[in-house]
Predict the structure.
Amino acid sequence: MRIAVIGAGAIGCLVAAYLKEKGEEVTLVGHSSTVKAIKEKGISVSGVRGNFLVHISASDTLNYIPELAILATKTQDINCALQNNSHLLQSSLLLIVQNGVQADNLAVKYLNKEKIISSIVMFGATNLEPGKVVHNFEGSWVLGNFFNHKLSESVLSLSLVLNKAFPTVICEDIKGAKYLKIFVNANNCLPAIIGKSMQEVFSDQGISRISIAIWKEAFGIIDSVGLQLVSLPGFPAENITKLTSMPVELAAQVFSQRMSSLSKEPLYGSILQSIMRGKLSEVEYINGEFVRLAEENNLSAPLNKVLVEMVHEVEKSGRFFSKEDLIQKTKEFI
């Protein structure tokens, strides 16, 4: 299968490298500076599967019609990526891998929804230098149709290809699973605000209490608007209901233990990784999604709104908040 991976960040580089290693014909499309580094040195992968180097075709523009395009940009970059490449993708399958639930809606403006396959990545990776990616932890690749629950032959056949890189799981209600994945990602804003790894941040019980409060507020909104969360491999929906119903101190302790042991390598989360690379983050599509849902339904999400604003302040100023600042600014919501 001729595969184009559009977006050369953590997930794009990782899946391109693993698929190339398994014999697939892969081209990586990214920014010119990243492409230059990959052409010169290849993709260096380290982490849970060991260290290896992959030499791969790379370009700053898509110049052929692929059978499969894996869209691995951030959600805020989808419009630009598809405006530049959609003329070559009309007959291709397009695989969505972005966090949040808005990517599919953006992509359907450019391509037939029958050609769009949605997915959720449950594995973790870090990319802070062009062409260098750390595979932090293993996980499944969840596939499904965002616009209906009917599973197409395309989903089934694609799962066989992607299974070469990561174990695939097919989900009938991937929209509900994507909302649960937002919960998984919602605490990425806290390392981004402080500027430290997830292990450092969530070893602090006070900050882990903020994490539980994020989930409590978000779950109240999800429940009020009647959205159904669908379990993910390794992360059942009951994780949210159980932790948010526990006493706060106990829930924070459980959360802290889980998050502190996710990876041996420093794990920064997608939002902080973007900031560290000098780019805008996807916080509007994660915590901002809870704020959007609340506002559309005459509800409120004050904690998530404050956290989105703090991330934007870090993006603009380049200065991180202290742990004490974070606790002070959120204490009325805990």
Remarks:
- The CA atoms of residues 209 and 252 lie 5 Å apart.
- The first strand starts at residue 2 and ends at 6.
